[in-house]
Design a protein that fits this description.
alpha+beta; Heat Shock Protein 90; 5-stranded mixed beta sheet; 11 helices; about 60% helix
Length: about 325
């Protein structure tokens, strides 16, 4: 139940961010289409053919996102260009040169003022530049919605992978890199943004075992590490091999396990956590699962570095490939 609560919180957090972005972006699109579109169409109809072409090119350029890229690359240069644009707009008699300069900046056309002079010379033209900026922002909002939907879909894909029907009690070939990445994504990334994750995987290291049972081991150690760091710190995950042995190391930079209790860490019902947080069975169960798979679980700890190390019989690449090919889809 504790693990279920952890994954539920992680999923809720991972969905909250893209859903929030989608909601705010959708409101922007509604505002542009509802409030600005009628005035934009009316203003566009009043423009001459050349100014219409300029207006459409501004919308297209703004859609490309060049403005935000330029500002992030050199904000100091952008500020200088906006000051120069404001001065030029004042010369042209703009009623609100600062706002128009912001519109030009958002569209990424601060350096195109000479070419835009005919449009900037009239209040109607300057108003149309504002409309071009807002239309471009609507396109940007649509892209944000698409990216956010892709992020949400990725979370769903991870969940489907995790609970897929072929993860039964039967033994299967497990790619440790893929498995650890899946679990880290579900339990750490998103739910604990202040945990830095550092991966060091040797490619293609596989073991044979029960995916659900082994997942209990990794989830227990990962959750313990995050709790020890109080949701903030460095989590290092390494996967390597020594001969016929696959080795998974999960390291946190928390306070460490005191020497006085290190000998009791695998003792059933012994826990250092507050009442209601831990049962004291997680590590004992994890060690039993490792033993079931012909492996071993141990740890070393000192202040600032606790490392849990799991050793399992490794599948040779040829055996892993043949077993994977024989598994049901």
């Amino acid at each position: 139940m504790a693990a279920l609560g952890q994954v539920a919180a992680s999923i809720a957090h991972q969905f909250a961010t893209p859903l929030g972005a989608m909601t705010s972006s959708n409101e922007n699109i509604i505002a542009v289409l509802g409030d600005d579109l009628p005035q934009t169409l009316k203003g566009f109809a009043a423009l001459g053919p050349e100014d219409r072409g300029t207006f459409l090119s501004l919308v297209a350029k703004g859609r490309g996102g060049s403005a935000s890229s330029a500002r992030s690359a050199d904000s100091r240069a952008d500020r200088a260009m906006k000051l120069a644009a404001r001065a030029r707009l004042e010369e042209l008699g703009a009623s609100d040169p600062e706002s128009t300069a912001e519109d030009l900046s958002d569209l990424g056309v601060l350096d195109d003022i000479p070419a835009l002079a005919p449009l900037l010379a009239t209040e109607a033209g300057r108003t149309m530049i504002g409309f071009a900026r807002r239309l471009s922002s609507a396109f940007g909002s649509a892209h944000i919605i698409r990216r956010s939907a892709e992020k949400a879909a990725a979370v769903i894909t991870s969940l489907r992978t995790y609970v897929r029907g072929d993860r039964s009690s039967a033994a299967a070939t497990i790619d440790l890199g893929l498995e650890l990445d899946l679990l880290i994504g579900l339990y750490v990334e998103g739910a604990h943004p202040e945990v830095e994750i550092r991966r060091r995987y040797s490619p293609g290291i596989c073991v044979n075992g029960n995916p659900d049972r082994l997942a209990q081991v990794w989830v227990n150690i990962i959750n313990n590490a995050v709790q020890a760091m109080e949701g903030r710190g460095l989590l290092e995950v390494a996967i390597e091999s020594e001969g016929e042995t696959a080795i998974v190391s999960i390291v946190d930079d928390g306070p460490g396990i005191p020497d006085a209790i290190q000998g009791r860490m695998f003792e059933p019902f012994f826990t250092t956590k507050a009442p209601g947080i831990g049962s004291g069975l997680g590590l004992d169960i994890a060690r039993s699962i490792m033993a079931e798979h012909g492996g071993f679980l141990g740890f070393t700890s000192r202040p600032g570095r606790t490392s849990f190390i799991a050793r399992l019989p490794r599948l040779r690449p040829d055996d892993a490939a043949s077993q994977a090919a024989s598994q049901p889809l």
